[in-house]
Each structure stands twice: as C-alpha cells, then as structure tokens.
Specification:
Layout lengths: L18 H23 L6 H20 L4 H12 L10 H18 L3 H20 L10 E8 L2 H13 L4 E8 L3 E8 L5 H9 L6 E5 L9
Antiparallel strand pairs: 1-3, 1-4, 2-3
Helix pairs in contact: 1-2, 1-4, 1-5, 2-3, 2-4, 3-4, 4-5
Length: 224
C-alpha cells in the first residue's frame, strides 16, 4: 500500500502518452483544489476570489507539468513563479501562503501522476490544520485589547495617567501618542487584569475630562 503512493498513473517516458491517466490526474487536481478551498474557508475570514483560485491552481500546475513533458526542474521553476504572483501584496496571511504552497505541491504530484500521494498529502495536512484549529493550538488565555485615552495636557493629568497605567500591570505596550488641540491622545495595547465589572467601576472614578475607548481585540498581524 505504501509503495502505491509513489506509483504514477502516467507513463514516465513521456507524460502526454497516457490519455486516460492525464484526464484522471486533472480531475483529481480539481477535486483536491475544492478540498483546499474548504480548508481556507474553515473558521476564518476568507476572500471569494482566493478560494476560487485555490480550486483551479492545482489543475493549472498539473497542466504545466504536462507541457514541460515531465521535466521536474523546469516545471517547479515555472509553477513556483506562477503560484507566487498573488503574494506581491504584503497583506497575504500565513494561512494563504501555506495553502498556495499546498496547492503547488498537489499540482506537482498529480501532474507527475502520483494521485494517491497527492490525496493522502491533502488529507494529512488538512486533517492536522483542522485539528489544530479545533483544539485552539497556541491560543492565549487572554487576548490583547486596544485602550485609547484622550486627556488635557498638563503635569497633573499626565501624573494621573501614569498612575492609572501602572495599575494595569506589566502587560501594557504604548502603541502611539499624539497631541490634538491641547489634548494628549495615547493608545496602548493591553491585557487587562480586571473583570468587566471591575473595569466599569474603575472608569467611573476617572476625571470627566478624560475620553476613554476600549476595543475588545486589536488588529492581528498575520502577514508574512
């Protein structure tokens, strides 16, 4: 059974001689592309265009393998350059990069005729990804939050601000600070040690001139 993973359904002498093997390879590429698109959409914010691209990409790479007549070195260079076009944008997430590399690997395997290898590779990697998401692997018990405070300029308000920030503990990172019309506006990234009730009680004791804004989560940077 294990040896079948490395048996090609396409003739190794020339990729284009086996018509039915070629059709089977392309159909397998398309089916596995749908599986990759499902993995991309699973419990995440997704782009419809990117999901469609994942469906088609393995088949296109398999066609590239066929066109270069099984020359793996040439096909990897062409398919690699083609699959990374999308990542000219710095906003691509690590999950998108992983799935594009996965689609490339699937296309290479099916294009060379190793259908069982492509199938088990997709099942294995996809199963691990879903398992890690369900078990919340590497998740934190508390999430970072964004705290923005606007207060009048002056020595006394700044002293009160320093005392207030000191009470929050050590999980406080200053993100930005700016002056706008004689008011100081500071933004912190914090992990609040208090419950919601304690937080609301603490806000009620602040100066009425203060404007405080607290978001539940900060923007997560997942791009590579």
């Amino acid at each position: 059974m294990l040896n079948q993973l490395f048996q090609s359904v396409i003739s190794q002498s020339t990729v284009s001689t086996s018509g039915w093997g070629l059709v089977l390879s392309l159909l397998t590429s398309m089916v596995l592309g749908f599986a990759l698109a499902y993995l991309y959409q699973h419990k995440t914010t997704y782009s419809r265009d990117f999901a469609m691209m994942l469906v088609v990409l393995p088949t296109l790479i398999a066609v590239i393998i066929v066109l270069v007549n099984g020359n793996l070195g040439t096909s990897v260079a062409v398919a690699g350059a083609f699959s990374l076009i999308k990542f000219r944008s710095p906003a691509s997430s690590s999950k998108e990069l992983l799935l594009v590399l996965m689609a490339t690997a699937v296309g290479l395997a099916t294009g060379m005729g190793y259908l069982f290898l492509a199938l088990w590779m997709t099942l294995l990697v996809g199963g691990v990804m879903i398992l890690l998401e369900k078990t919340r692997f590497a998740s934190k018990t508390r999430d970072w939050q964004e705290l923005t405070i606007s207060l009048p300029q002056g020595a006394t308000p700044r002293l009160l601000l320093e005392r207030f920030i000191a009470e929050l503990g050590t999980d406080v990172v200053l993100e930005k600070a700016k002056v706008n019309q004689n008011r100081l506006e500071v933004t912190y990234r914090v992990m609040l040690p208090w419950s919601e009730e304690t937080w609301l009680q603490r806000l009620s004791t602040l100066d009425s001139d203060w404007v405080v804004s607290l978001s539940r989560t900060t923007k997560k940077k997942k791009s590579l």
